Amino acid sequence: MKYHIIPVTVFTQNCSVIWCEATYEAALIDSGGDAGKIIKKLQQLNIVPTKILLTHGHLDHVGAVAELAVHYQASIFGPQKQDAFLLEELPMQSRMFGLEECVPFTPDHWLEEGDNIQVGEIKLEILHTPGHTPGHIVFFDRMGRLLISGDVIFHGGVGRTDFPRGNHQDLILSIKNKLLPLGDDVIFIPGHGSLSTLGHERTNNPFLQ
Ligand SMILES: [Zn+2]
To answer: Which residues of the chain fall short of a pLDDT of 70?
Structure first.
């Protein structure tokens, strides 16, 4: 699996594009804003995504989804349906963050724990990891040992839980029971900031000690 990270919005959210080297099928993950910047980068990479995958419903992760889904005729997958309230409230979220009003949308497919998404020859496993939001999910490429973790875990940090329906205890349980068991060697791309490994965070992350 190949990937490229495009930082978007004033929150420097890591919009990832992943693609299969054999088939060139591609997916965008968490296209939070700056649709024009994303389109330009994908043109340079010569990539046309057929799927848009979402970890959770926060504005800085979904702001450009409606526009890009139309532009690429791509299907929208995720998050888990408990984040529906966030997608319904996108215009309100836009006002709260002082950003341009974002068009609300409904995903073509909600995702659940145990679901898989195929991108060419890449298989992504879905894990439900509530805490930052109730419907937060992560995407795991078991063969490639790569995790796309949204706002659950960061290099040296964990997701905020002071937003509506956030729960710190749930978040820590999600990390300890679902992410850490994937293996110390697993590299993760978080929603913000630099990449890390689960092993590094298991040992060093102050929120997991
Ligand atoms: Zn978030």
So the answer is: none
